[in-house]
Every structure is written in structure tokens, then in C-alpha cells.
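Problem: given the chain below (231 residues), write out its structure.
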Amino acid sequence: MIVTARAEQLARNWTQAKTDVQLACEQANRTFADVTIIAVTKTWPAVDVDTLAECGVTDVGENRDQEAAAKHQQVRDSNLTWHAIGQVQTNKVKSIVQWADVIHSVDRLDLVRALAKVMPSREKPLGVFIQLNLDPEVREERGGLRGDNLLALAEAITDVPGLQVRGVMGVAPLVGEPEAAFASLQESATRLQTQFPQACDISAGMSGDYKIALKYGATHLRLGSLILGNR
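Solution.
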């Protein structure tokens, strides 16, 4: 295997990211083994995904279906777990269920119904995170439902054969401190788990705020620039 400068950079970034997350876990009194690091590979080529897999990355995240579907076909490692982390349009679900193992942004009933129609074409279960809107004011372009509808949507998801509620997902608000938002997300996660014990995960925290997210129970960190770098 020819080791390129890019491969060396990715290996360094991945090692440093793991070290940083482990330290943040210790500071938050969390166990590093309980945290999944998702390398957000959107806009980066399949060769980068292959390189990261060789470095030990097990989970990758993609935002756009068209890009992800093509990349999924190109990547050599078949053991990776693929996470759909962007907003999902109902007309894209037929394609998404062919490459994604987990969807992090289920936030409305019509999306659940669309998934129900295409799940018979899928052989294995599909993990689902319910995205909550953490902005002080609802911003439609950001996605996510308000917490009052959480349990009803979870019930609808569990009624679909093959769909498995994993927990909640949130993105820090554009304005204001992320700490209060992640605390609210953790409260919603606790409420969800009371009725759905298997839904014990929290997808929260990106490259700039993952340390705060870890303080509030995040189990899945979505890290892009820390691992892949900046364009």
C-alpha cells in the first residue's frame, strides 16, 4: 500500500481525535468505550473513507443521499456502519435504506410512513434517532421536532417492523449557549428511555462542541473537521 501525505494526515487526525475524546470523557466522568465516534465524511472522497477504515474507524456519517449512495458502492470496507445524519426527504428514503445502517434525523410522522413503505425491501433492521429541535425558536430548515411530540413519534416508529428507536439526536442552536440545549436533550432522552428502555443513545456533539455534549450524556459524536480537516 502506498502511503500518501493525505493518508498520514488522516491517521494523525484520527489518533488525535481519539485521544482528545478520551480525555474529554475522563473530564466528564464518562467511559470512552461507551462513546461512538462518527467520522463525518461528507464532501470527502471514498479513498478517505477507505483510509480511515484502515486506521480503525468503524462509523462514518453522510449528509446527502446521492453522494453517500455512490460512495457506499466505492468503499472497499464492508464492515463500516453508515450513518445518515442530514435532513431526510421522503422521496429519498428508498435509496437511503439501501446504504444507511442508522438514520439520525427522523423528526416527523410522514417520514416514518415513508420508511414503513420501503422497509420490506431491506433485510436487516434500521436504527433510528429522533431529532429534536434545540433552537429557541423553531427553524424549519434546521429540522427536528419539539419535545412534546417525542413519545408519540417513538410509538409510531416502533410500530414499523424493522425500525429500531436508538434514542434522540440534536444539533446545538445557532445562537445561545449549547450547554442548556444539550441539557434539555438529555432530559428528553431520559423521558424517552422511561417508556422505551432500548432507546438509550444520544447523538449530539460535533467538532466544536462535543466536550459539552459529553457532559450531558452524548453517546454518538459526529466529528468532521477534527478528523477529515478543513477544505
